Amino acid sequence: MRVAVAGGTGLIGRHVVSLVEQAGHEPVVLTRSRGVDLTTGAGLSAALAGAEVVLDVSNVATLSKKRSVRFFTTGTTRLLEAGARAGVRHHLALSIVGVDRVGWGYYAGKLSQEELIRNGDLPWTVLRATQFHEFAEQLLARSPGPVAVVPRLRVQPVAAHEVAARLVELALGPAVGRAPDMAGPQERELVELVRQVGRARGRRRLVVPVPVLGAAARGGLLPAGQGYTRGSQSFEDWLRSGGPSAGPAAS
């Protein structure tokens, strides 16, 4: 089976591509470095030839609502249209737990992506996951000065490789629509996670918690729904393993 992976060189995408290969299938990486541009559609039709599944873990590093909506709307539309022409039987995308209850920034783009997939012509699956363990380090990396400003939120971080494994499992099966959410084994304070990363990496920063406005964040950050798929690797286990250094924003 040919599985086209949009964003196949990113944090999740690298795991997905490896797992697809290990399962005995053929991954096709859809990135600009491989001659495929989701924003223009260049190279997309040729790359999807013979593909049965499109697995979209593409991403954009932005907090801008306008830029996020533009990126996900354009890329998803291109993928759905090219997938329909190529005879793709299953379109699957990674999203964020609680994205429908957040109206700001990056989340608005992900919600637009979900809506396009849900209203499209292809059988679809959407998996919503909580923030990855790497999220705390990404926040620290975005604050190059002596002070790191971190939202005062409770999170339930999950291992990126476990999310990738679940995505591949779903991709190799029939479309299910909204799959059960996926979250890590523990709820934690995001501020404390950032502090732990700083200590582990030897980065001396003053971590300043700031409140987040909006009903979505009251009492925590959008916990996974009932019946969610529970990851097994804790944040501390990830940190002890060395954890990859921060790359592009995960979620």
Explain this structure to me?
It is a single chain. By secondary structure, the chain is of the alpha/beta class. It has one domain (2-240): NAD(P)-binding Rossmann-like Domain (Rossmann fold). Helix content is 36%, strand content 19%. The chain has helices at 11-22, 44-48, 65-86, 106-118, 134-141, 160-171, 190-201, 235-240; strands at 2-6, 26-30, 53-56, 90-96, 124-129, 147-151, 154-155, 177-178, 182-183, 188-189, 206-210, 229-230. Strands 2-1-3-4-5-8 form a six-stranded parallel β-sheet, sandwiched between helices. Helix 5 packs across helix 7 (190-201). The longest helix is centred in the N-terminal third of the chain and has 22 residues, at 65-86. 46% of the residues are buried. Residues 245-251 have low confidence and may be disordered.
How do you describe this structure in short?
With 251 residues, the protein is an alpha/beta fold. It contains eight helices and twelve strands.
Spell the H/E element sequence: EHEHEHEHEHEEHEEEHEEH
Strand-pairing-aware structural class: alpha/beta
The number of distinct helices, counting runs of at least 4 residues, comes to: 8
CATH class: Alpha Beta
Measured between the Cα atoms of the first and last residue, the distance is: 28 Å
Radius of gyration: 18 Å
How would you name the CATH homologous superfamily? NAD(P)-binding Rossmann-like Domain
Reported for the largest beta sheet, the result is: 6 strands, parallel
Q: What's the structural domain tally?
A: 1
Pick out the low-confidence regions: 245-251
State which percent range the strand residues make up: 15-25%
Q: What is the CATH topology assignment?
A: Rossmann fold
What is the quaternary state of this protein?
A: single chain
Q: Quote the average pLDDT.
A: 90
State the total count of DSSP E strands.
Answer: 12
